């Protein structure tokens, strides 16, 4: 499988550690409302905001691989990552959604 590609249904916390599944990670989807050097803030469907931290090691993709420069305000994204004690997420991957 291509690096960064995810398959399957992700619901709730994933507690399986196996190849393509990430232990303790869960998907979070929303609209990018602001950008920082290594952060994005997304507006969730319930109207709340979530800060997402990312690094050069974070997979940022769409059907083909993408980069941090392709993150834009208003872009729909799905983030897989670990929730931090302060409520932010540290992203393992960010998928740009093509449907708006």
Topology:
Layout: E1 26-35, E2 39-44, E3 49-53, E4 59-61, E5 65-66, E6 76-83, E7 89-96
Parallel strand pairs: 3-7, 4-7
Antiparallel strand pairs: 1-2, 1-6, 2-3, 4-5, 6-7
Provide structural commentary:
The protein has strands at 26-35, 39-44, 49-53, 59-61, 65-66, 76-83, 89-96. The termini are far apart. By secondary structure, the protein is mainly beta. 0% of the residues lie in helices and 42% in strands. Strand 2 (39-44) and strand 3 (49-53) form a beta hairpin. Residues 1-22 have low confidence and may be disordered. It has a single domain (27-96), classed as Copper binding periplasmic protein CusF (OB fold (Dihydrolipoamide Acetyltransferase, E2P), Beta Barrel), CATH 2.40.50.320. The protein has no helices and seven strands. The radius of gyration is 13 Å and the shape is globular.
Distance between the termini: 26 Å
CATH-assigned homologous superfamily: Copper binding periplasmic protein CusF
Report the average pLDDT across residues: 76
Overall radius of gyration:
13 Å
Give me the CATH fold name: OB fold (Dihydrolipoamide Acetyltransferase, E2P)
Number of helical regions = 0
